[in-house]
Amino acid sequence: MKSNFDKAAETYDENAVVQFDSSMLLASLCKNTIKEKPKTILDVGCGTGFTTLAIQKLYKTAKCTLCDISENMINVAKSKEELKACEYIVCNAENYDFDEYDLIISNLAFQWFDDLKTFLQKMLSKCKYLAFSILTEESFKDYAKLFKINNINIWGYKYIFSENFLKNLEKQSNVLEFYRKSYRIGFKSAFEAAKHFKNIGGYNSDLQDGSKNEIVSILKSYRGFMFLDYNLALVILEGKKSN
Ligand SMILES: C[S@@+](CC[C@H](N)C(=O)[O-])C[C@H]1O[C@@H](n2cnc3c(N)ncnc32)[C@H](O)[C@@H]1O
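# S-adenosylmethionine complex -> structure
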């Protein structure tokens, strides 16, 4: 998974239109929900820094730390003038021992985690607020249908939001905000849609050559427009450091 994001670092910003918009939405939900101004902020799975850029506009004096498993993504973030004063950690967030933060944010990174439940438990003990967005199970249905009969795991991500996931969150923490947002982007062909995933790193890089060839021939044989539906859940949780 790290390698697909490393490869996509240079093409990410001009293709990640949904991630850009949902970063701003996540920041505005924080503004409406979180009454005190956070002084320290951690962005988990920061990518090229969209979410920190959005949150920094609200909390201008906050000290921001960005972390990502992909060094190339972090390097693009570091090169942005507005993010020069931030701190950076290249790590697998699931194994890293983080400091405490007033606010932990994460935009569209958690679906890639191996054990999100354990990770959230760990992070809730280290913050006052945890705000994140994640893909839901209804995402990319039309595209996924193409590969269903061949049983190919085209995504490679492990975790996806479901109603059960929300119920579990409610047992672990006080859910301060829960919001859903859908985006539909259209492409001239299924092949163009596949290119979109490649350009943002959203694909399974562990596939064998046989499966890759199968994917290419399925994509080529599809005629007509392809719509990608990004369905997002955005959640703000109260951390254990709240009082
Ligand atoms: C879809 S991108 C989102 C990037 C950014 N948050 C944004 O909104 O543009 C997902 C990011 O999560 C990172 N990521 C995935 N799993 C991770 C992990 N276990 N630890 C740290 N970063 C991770 C990837 O490297 C990638 O940059």
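# post-check
The pocket of S-adenosylmethionine is lined by residues 5, 16, 19, 23, 45-47, 50-51, 67-70, 73, 92-94, 107-109, 112-113 (CB under 6 Å).
The mean pLDDT is 92.
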